[in-house]
Amino acid sequence: MRRLKKWIAMGLTLAVAALSFAGCGDGTKTETTTEKTEATQETESESTEAGSTEEGTTETAGAAGDVQAIKDRGVLKVGVKNAVVGFGYQDTLTGEYSGLEIELAKKLAEYLGVDVEFTAVTAATRTELLDSGDIDCVLATFTITDERKENWDFSTPYYTDYVTVLVQTDSGIKTLADLKGKKVGVSSGSTSAQSLVQAMCDNDIIAKDGFNPDTFDPATWTTDVSFQQYEDYPTISTALSAGEVDAFCVDKSILAIYNTDDREYIDDKFAPQEYGIATRKGSELSGVADELVTGWLSDGTISGLIKDNGLE
Length: 312
What we know:
Elements: H1 2-51, H2 66-73, E1 75-80, E2 83-84, E3 88-90, E4 97-98, H3 100-112, E5 115-120, H4 126-132, E6 137-139, H5 146-149, E7 152-154, E8 159-168, E9 182-187, H6 192-202, E10 225-230, H7 233-242, E11 247-251, H8 252-255, E12 263-265, E13 270-275, E14 278-280, H9 284-298, H10 301-308
Parallel strand pairs: 1-5, 1-6, 9-10, 9-11
Antiparallel strand pairs: 2-3, 3-4, 6-14, 7-14, 8-11, 8-12, 8-13
């Protein structure tokens, strides 16, 4: 009898042990399967989103769900100018940013409940960084055009400026007509050169026959006026002082920073420039940005920031 009880006890012990091991094995398998499923779903999701592009556009993977991704990350990454007083300017001593676009970026981040991180961009780099996903949006005096809207989304304009030309006071250049035969400094990737040629054509200073906005290239344009492209505005200003170029053409609000006592604007201003928040095509952030800008325009927030930053 004792031996029988002993064998029964041993049998129960082995059965419990077997069940325990089986339970552990099933739990490990379930966890691994879940991890693989999530990884597979994530990869498939990224592949689907990366492939969901319209003709003539390039969308970054995850653009459609970028708002949640930004919230999960806890940081909104914004491309801004760092040398345009009133819009985006970084103090060289403190590293602090200030300006209308800086404040709008902070408000956007605040709405999303995240911190904000600024990346200095130029006209030549802002879209590259946006397309690559290194930044989530651009607030960098980015002019809205029909051509650009084919590749990126833009919010309702938050500021309207005009293009004009800055020259040395003793240059003798007073009007658009005086720019014939001159070399003009412009920023790479900007629309300033095209706007200037368009204005000269509209004023019958340049024959319209040779100008096609769709194929215009400032690097090859030599009819009555030529262009030298630079990576940033301070370099163009230095080139103007050194006589490398005869004029500096860009939006007037930007030129105001470089309008020193020995310089002046020509009499003409042209090509209204509407600035908007740029986001990736099809991005969820696009709708959020537009809704916020529309609201800030209605309640006077933006007009107040324009006044505070001396942009009236």
